[in-house]
Design brief:
binds iron/sulfur cluster
């Protein structure tokens, strides 16, 4: 396997300093060494959705740990904040979100009424009483719940789902909306399942792994260990992405001595498409495969429908058009097809570079088309994997914290309402439920009375933060359930804002479960140790509020403990049968088994998967403008952990652009620029990056001010996180003549 350098530890290269991070984390967690160690040793990581049990996983032997987890640890181990800082929120408005978090854990329920300068401590009884009265007084259609995935367990998602329906509303959504909702929609409509069809272990020994719009070294760091072992067995890696991501080019895998010392070269081929050029690129690959007779005809004939419609659609698309829309010459498409056809097995992995578009569902369907044409679904070392970035997010929608489903496999309709009435003892509503995007629009229009947000921060995650701020300020009662302070809690209330202090997943009685990207449901035990003030298990708060709002029917919503919730999940959502038996560290099961659609049998009409004829969306970039996308640096979701992106060496205010674009604007590296459109502007510093010309990137969520709200994928309401911008010099940092 090819090393990166003979110089040990990548000295002289821009790369993460993993061992230094370990030491820094040890220092950050020094106040609770035993508690910290127990969380690491026994808990399921609350970082990304790769999944752990303690410091192990089910894919490979050896330690499973990364700096994302270490950087999140202080949230689980730090002490309470001094609630006096909340007496006047004006002084907190200029504090960064990072510094707000570091003030400490929320220890008590807090209340701020309209006109108050800040929050005051109240008791749970009063807090729940205020919330329950407001909920009782509100028509159910004016109550909404948003449940983010920060450490959230399946149990908490499930009880939130049930509580929302119990209170008469389907307005419940979770953070998979601005994440992988196009994947669940696109997969469900084409292959009948809405999750990864394969396991991580299918990477190792596969002939080819393709990353579409996915930068796993940054977002799922331990996956680099899997890639190392895959490469060792001869796997080829291809990357389809506007940016030649350095972490996918080469990485120093800290848990593999050889790689930690000399680095490992990963990608064998990069295909730098235009941002949003994936459909055109894939269509070109398919067109070439058809022309060459490289499609897996037997698989297509026996296991799919719609191929002729796809073939006909591709016949109308000229190579010139596909080249223009994808940004790549046809020879690059031929090269990809060549790589693909030589592979007997292949796994396609994708992330937000695919989903964060107004045509994210079609992007996913294009990947499915390619996978079906090569027959790579339902076989060993093969599969389609929408890799998840948040630990709990796979389970969020599957537990029914979703406006369109009561639970995995049970869309909101009359038949399923009857079914859930049989389990729950009350009939859930069947009216249309709002997504997160719809909730903010409804709030802005004065259409919500109560907005209950468990975790998350819409101010940082949705486009046009000023609009979101106005929307939040118009909701009479906002409830923020969280472990720490966020900027959205500081938005002035229309009537009142309540803060509900939550426990982390490690503190909740009876433990909890989490579902990983590969559909493995892990048990994370309750970790003995210190607790914070009056913080409570998230599921208990949802439940008790529902009981207080409808005291006539408490039996229908009451759970004695987490075990009782798991027992009910097993009944309500049969795919999760087995969850009722999870009770110890290390307990886990993979629903659906290692692979879904095994043998090419799809849970679709006739057992056949469906091809989709697709036409590339117009990706024309007007003269003088650039197509902006947003990227993640040293951060976890919107939580920024450091100013420097360790993989690129870029600072958060850097504007990443191709050197030839900069030259066209007479700019040099280090020049100050204004990136703007009719929504707003961001000041930044030019940094040359290996990105397709005419495409630029800035960091998110800072870039949200340039992203237009209301442009969403109509099939799932995923916001389009890309935008056309202009770039102009402010002043030159150059000295000399
Ligand atoms: S790769 Fe993901 S699951 Fe594994 S330790 Fe890091 S953040 Fe946690």
């Amino acid at each position: 396997m090819e090393h990166v350098s003979a110089v040990p530890f990548g000295m002289g290269f821009t790369k993460p300093h993993n061992y230094r991070e370990v030491l820094r984390s040890a220092w950050d967690n020094k106040r609770q060494p035993l508690f910290t160690w127990r969380i690491l040793r026994d808990g399921v990581c609350d970082g990304c959705a790769l999944g752990t049990t303690g410091l192990r996983d089910f894919t490979m032997k050896g330690i499973h740990l990364c700096t994302v987890r270490l950087n999140l640890l202080p949230l689980n181990t730090m002490g309470p904040l001094d609630i006096r800082v909340l007496e006047d929120v004006a002084s907190l408005r200029s504090v960064s979100s990072k510094d707000l978090r570091s003030l400490g854990r929320l220890p008590y329920p807090m209340l701020r009424r309209r006109g108050d300068a800040g929050f005051r401590r109240i008791y749970w009884d009063e807090a729940l009483g205020i919330a329950a009265r407001r909920i009782r007084a509100a028509p159910p259609d004016r109550i909404a719940f948003f449940v983010t995935s920060r450490g959230m367990t399946n149990e908490s998602y499930y009880v939130a789902n049930k509580a929302a329906r119990f209170l008469g509303t389907n307005h419940i959504d979770n953070s998979s909306r601005p994440c992988h909702s196009p994947s669940t929609t696109g997969l469900k409509e084409t292959i009948g399942v809405a999750a990864s069809t394969c396991s991580y272990s299918d990477w190792i020994g596969s002939d080819l792994i393709v990353f579409f719009g996915s930068d796993v070294p940054n977002n799922q760091p331990v996956s680099t260990k899997y890639l190392y072992h895959a490469k060792k067995q001869g796997t080829k890696i291809a990357v389809v992405n506007p940016m030649r991501e350095p972490g996918l080019e080469r990485y120093w895998v800290p848990s593999v001595p050889e790689s930690a010392l000399f680095g490992t070269r990963f990608a064998d081929a990069f295909f730098p498409v235009h941002t949003g050029g994936d459909i055109a690129f894939i269509n070109g690959v398919l067109k070439h495969m058809i022309e060459k007779g490289w499609v897996q005809d037997t698989f297509v004939a026996e296991h799919t429908t719609g191929f002729e419609a796809l073939r006909a659609a591709l016949a109308t698309q000229s190579w010139e058009e596909l080249e223009r829309q994808s940004g790549l010459r046809r020879e690059a498409m031929f090269d990809f097809a060549d790589l693909y056809v030589r592979a007997r097995t292949a796994v396609f992995v994708w992330s937000m570079g695919i989903t964060h578009h107004r045509f994210g569902v079609d992007n996913v369907k294009a990947i499915v088309n390619l996978g079906l044409a090569g027959g790579i679904v339902g076989r060993e070392k093969c599969g389609l994997m929408p890799i998840r970035g948040h630990s709990g997010v796979q389970g969020g929608s599957e537990m029914g914290a979703n406006p369109k489903d009561y639970g995995l496999g049970f869309p909101v309709d009359e038949t399923n309402a009857d079914r859930f009435q049989g389990i729950w003892g009350f009939r859930p509503p069947t009216a249309h439920g709002m997504t997160a995007v719809g909730m903010i629009d409804a709030a802005h229009a004065g259409g919500l009375d109560v907005l209950y947000m468990a975790g998350g921060n819409f101010l940082e995650t949705l486009p046009e933060p000023d609009y979101v701020q106005q929307a939040l300020g118009r909701v009479p009662l906002r409830i923020h359930q969280d472990i720490v302070l966020t900027s959205s809690m500081l938005v002035d209330p229309a009537y009142a804002v309540l803060l509900f202090p939550a426990q982390t997943r490690y503190e909740q009685r009876g433990g909890g479960t989490q579902t990983s990207t590969e559909r493995r449901v892990y048990f994370s035990p309750e970790i003995p140790g210190r607790r914070i003030g009056e913080s409570r298990a998230e599921w208990e708060i949802f439940m008790e509020l529902a009981e207080r709002a409808r005291p006539d029917a408490t039996k229908q919503i009451h759970f004695e403990d987490a075990r009782a919730i798991r027992a009910e999940i097993a009944k309500a959502i049969p795919s999760y049968d087995g969850i009722q038996g999870l009770s110890q560290k290390g307990d886990a099961f993979q629903y659906g088994g290692p692979r879904l659609c095994e043998g090419g049998v799809f849970p679709m009409p006739g057992g056949r998967a469906r091809f989709t004829p697709l036409w590339p969306p117009d990706s024309h970039i007007p003269e003088g403008q650039f197509l902006l996308s947003t990227r993640r640096g040293k951060q976890f979701n919107s939580m920024i952990q450091g100013d420097v992106d360790p993989l690129l060496g870029a600072h958060r205010r850097d504007v990443l652009m191709a050197q030839e674009d900069a030259a066209g604007l007479n700019l040099q590296e280090g020049d100050e620029v204004l990136v703007s459109n009719d929504l707003g502007s961001v000041r930044g510093t030019v940094r040359f990056a290996p990105i397709r010309p005419k495409n630029v990137q800035i960091y998110w969520p800072e870039g949200n001010v340039l992203i237009r709200r209301g442009i969403v994928d109509p099939a799932c309401e995923m916001p389009d996180y890309n935008s056309l911008v202009r770039i102009e010099a402010i002043r030159s940092s150059r000295v000399g003549p």
